[in-house]
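Q: What does the assembled structure look like for these inputs?
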Amino acid sequence: MKRWIMDKHTPTRGLSFEASESLYTESSQYQTIEIVKTADFGTVMLLDGVLMVTQRDEFVYHEMLSHPTLFTHPNPQNVLIIGGGDCGTLTQVLRHPSVQKVIQVEIDEMVTRVSRQYFPQLTECISDPRAELIFADGIRYLQENQDSFDVILVDSTDPVGPAEGLFRKEFFADCHRALKADGILTIQSESPWIDDLQVVISQVNKDLKELFTYVNPYLASIQTYQAGLWMFQMASKKYQPCLEDQTNAIKESGMQFSYFNRDVFSGCFILPEFVRKLIQ
Amino acid sequence: MKRWIMDKHTPTRGLSFEASESLYTESSQYQTIEIVKTADFGTVMLLDGVLMVTQRDEFVYHEMLSHPTLFTHPNPQNVLIIGGGDCGTLTQVLRHPSVQKVIQVEIDEMVTRVSRQYFPQLTECISDPRAELIFADGIRYLQENQDSFDVILVDSTDPVGPAEGLFRKEFFADCHRALKADGILTIQSESPWIDDLQVVISQVNKDLKELFTYVNPYLASIQTYQAGLWMFQMASKKYQPCLEDQTNAIKESGMQFSYFNRDVFSGCFILPEFVRKLIQ
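A:
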């Protein structure tokens, strides 16, 4: 049963695509999870009707949320992922041999269960002995941990519903406390093309700057997310990204990527003028 | 009369947006021209149902088609624009004080006539005495000119219908002949996210490399074009882009931009890994 789906980015615009087949629909305690097959994006996961993961382009979001930070920190051993239930970010983090432990705190266990079935390439990593999956409220989890992590990655949904608290200054302060003295926090921070999200980007940037030594926003092209352009913000206590010795580390790692590379590691921090003005 | 419009990017995906008002629809000899009002993008022009120009984000395409090239050439005096009937590219080119003459060869006069009515901010520049508008077939025009231009910009529609010939090697060879010995040709070359267009990008890159000394593809985020990521290719006989003295020229020009800036001038040439592989 073919049908068209529109992922609305505002009340008056959205990405439309044809689902060739509906594979799964179920509501968890937190949200409705839907899996469909598409010609353009392969298997797609929607949460409350919003496109979250696609087989075709998940690599952009997951590589770009993790590698810029994991290559900026000279020795990331203990990593915390807040959200990230599809395990795509976890997969990328575990590729770094320095990493000894990754704790992932996802609020909705059903997201991970469904991902195991429909995105096995993302969830294989769960069997890695360095990975620990906790299904709980990330905000509460953080409040109980201090000076524990080298890196925290916030892999959240949009700032409405369950993820709203993950865009607040109190949460960033909790992250700051949970990081070691040279730790780095990196969050996904929405699309700079959407008016309502521009407000979020500016506020988040202001809040992070009040807490951290360096805040470096960066961009990636994600065709299936709002307006096709996505921002991340890297908030760091000590290390600055994209220095020469870090790009050498990328080469020496021998790792292969589909979006990230040595040039992208510096290029992603270059902001078009209208984006630069959002975070001045 | 509100209605939803879908600009299809493949048979099974597209950008959907609500038109709050239809302002104009007419068919020229070449295509159907439609103007609508939208909440998200302001005034929008569609050609044969494909979104071409929006009030909200036209600046990206027009700045990025023109300024990287106009700042790479040390003294661009004679410029040819093929296509570009909305005059947005012409507007940007004429901001450069070195430019003495810009000839624009657009096949469809009706596009310019309609733009004068609905995008006056783009067509004001027509009264500049350095601008000459010719309504004719750009391919034929080029065949009659040799060694004439410092810069040629190809501001075309997609490689179907009237613009198909503008993606062929014979046309690029005509451009090469029409350029001076140190001239630069820059073309819009579609979205690297769309399978069918990946083929076009690779072929165009190969053809340009056989004709020119340097071919530098670059990218910009255009939210209303296919998949939100757009490629351009700069083919140059002598000059390489984004050298230090060129970025100084940007600063010294005192020009203000909404997308382009000194950092973008180098950053736009940095390609994500999957795009880099398309042009290897």
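The interface with chain A takes residues 6, 10-18, 20, 38-41, 57, 60, 193, 219-221, 223, 227-229, 257-261, 263-264, 266-267, 270-274, 276 of chain B (CB under 8 Å).
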